[in-house]
Amino acid sequence: MNDEDQPKVDKYATVDEKSTHLAAIRISEIPFKPGTLPLADRAMRVRRLDVHPGGVIGVHDHSDRPAILFVLHGSMTVHDENLGTAAIVNEGEAVAEFGDLQHWAQNNSDKLPLALLTFDLLDDSAEPLATTPPPGR
């Protein structure tokens, strides 16, 4: 099929689009630990995490890895080790994770997997990180 057979589309028009703000981190408010990479030297990583029914994401912190997490499928309970609190995060919700936050999470279902999408600013100086070029390059 050549370009003449394609319907004409106004590539500058924004119609059938819905944008919903889910979470944000003000970069200037992120405290980085001394000795970690500055923001400009970090890699932005996106990954999918699949947690088995009833499974746990073990205790970890975000002192040098600020992130935004989005729940694709399922529901989880996030336990804050510093505050001794717990919060439920449901499908379609997002959470910002940074600073002295130390937490762990559990899939609330004993039958269905939990699927998460995370975006983080990775201090990749400790481990090699494969980069993905933009499409078409």
Total E-strand runs: 8
Based on Cα principal axes, name the global outline.
globular
> Which fold name corresponds to the CATH topology of the domain at 42-125?
Jelly Rolls
Distance between the termini: 24 Å
- Give the name of the CATH architecture of the domain at 42-125: Sandwich
Task: Give a short account of the largest sheet.
Answer: 4 strands, antiparallel
Low-pLDDT regions:
none
CA radius of gyration is: 19 Å
In percent terms, what proportion of residues is strand?
Answer: 35-45%
Q: What would CATH call the class of the domain at 42-125?
A: Mainly Beta
What average pLDDT do the residues reach? Answer: 84
Number of helices: 0
| The CATH homology group name of the domain at 42-125 | Jelly Rolls
SSE sequence, one letter per element: EEEEEEEE
Kindly state the percentage of residues in helix: under 10%
**SS class:** mainly beta
Strand order of the largest sheet: 1-8-3-6
